[in-house]
Amino acid sequence: MKHKIIETPDVYFHAVGGIENHVHLAISVPPNLLVSDFVGKLKGGSSYHINQTANHKLLQWQRGYGIVSFGTKDLQWVINYVLNQKEHHKKGTTYERLERSEDES
Questions:
Q1: Residue 81: how many other CB atoms lie within 10 Å
Q2: How many CB atoms sit inside 10 A of residue 86's CB?
Q3: What is the pLDDT of residue 59?
Q4: Would the pTM of this model clear 0.85, i.e. be above it?
Q5: What is the chain's Cα-based Rg?
């Protein structure tokens, strides 16, 4: 995923983190990027790569995705949160705004 983000013009990679059942990305995207297409390519490319390497269906994404936007002043907080996903879940210090999933709607 990081490679695909880095090779996409005008998209800036900040951080990736996750646990067994979900992943968080901190990225900056230009206003003209069609986010639904971009996320679809990230999910499709990563599942294809992992499943081809494993020779069986190891990774299957949920149907949807969530996006939360932040201003520049919160960027470092977001990066720290993403990089410390495992600890947040272990300690119960998650933020609902960042953790809601399709299953919880």
A1: 20
A2: 12
A3: 60
A4: no
A5: 14
